[in-house]
Amino acid sequence: MVQVQTFVFNPFSENTYLLYDETGEAIIIDPGCYDRSEVNELTDFVQQHGLKPVQIVNTHAHIDHVLGVAALKRKYGIPFVLHKLDEPLLKAVKTYASNYGFSAFEEPEIDGFIKEGETIEFGNTSLKIIFVPGHAPGHVALVNDAEKFVIGGDVLFRMSIGRTDLPGGDHATLLRSIREQMFTLPDDYTVYAGHMEPTTIGFEKRNNPFFK
Ligand SMILES: [Zn+2]
Ligand SMILES: [Zn+2]
């Protein structure tokens, strides 16, 4: 059974997710850990639980989601993958990182690209990749049918949706992604978002003010 461990990192209060199952294999999604103490919080958890991270996967490449990628790649010697359409966003981060106070940001090397319809595998666990652009052009979400959840990134939040005023953002595209890709998941699926607390598909279909 897959476990979802949440860490809240950096001044954007970004949710970093560590997923692991009974085999001890783990993947790290959207590592936003920036300073030494944040990186240690994640690596200490991995060590204390005897886990073996095998891959870093990003839902998208905004700065708050990629701050820890380089450090964790180095620590574990594991590949980093994301959707190809978010590569320009990743390449842009170093041009604005110091404006946000992240002068120590290190651009990670990309090891591979993922796309919709494929699966991410680790241990006994499988995550289906869906394509949900709008907040970012190459935004993906990761669906686990066995435990009924989706790691949604910055697409759908409790009572809110992702912002679309950043480069590559598009409001109509985001609404369509949520309607066609997220709201077609079963109502009882938990949404682990990139910020704030988890929600469910059913709750958002009934209560999200953007879909009234
Ligand atoms: Zn974002
Ligand atoms: Zn974010």
From TrEMBL:
<dbReference type="InterPro" id="IPR051453">
    <property type="entry name" value="MBL_Glyoxalase_II"/>
</dbReference>
<keyword id="KW-0479">Metal-binding</keyword>
<keyword id="KW-0378">Hydrolase</keyword>
<dbReference type="Pfam" id="PF00753">
    <property type="entry name" value="Lactamase_B"/>
</dbReference>
<dbReference type="InterPro" id="IPR001279">
    <property type="entry name" value="Metallo-B-lactamas"/>
</dbReference>
<protein>
    <submittedName>
        <fullName>Glyoxylase-like metal-dependent hydrolase (Beta-lactamase superfamily II)</fullName>
    </submittedName>
</protein>
<keyword id="KW-0862">Zinc</keyword>
<dbReference type="InterPro" id="IPR036866">
    <property type="entry name" value="RibonucZ/Hydroxyglut_hydro"/>
</dbReference>
<feature type="domain" description="Metallo-beta-lactamase">
    <location>
        <begin position="13"/>
        <end position="195"/>
    </location>
</feature>
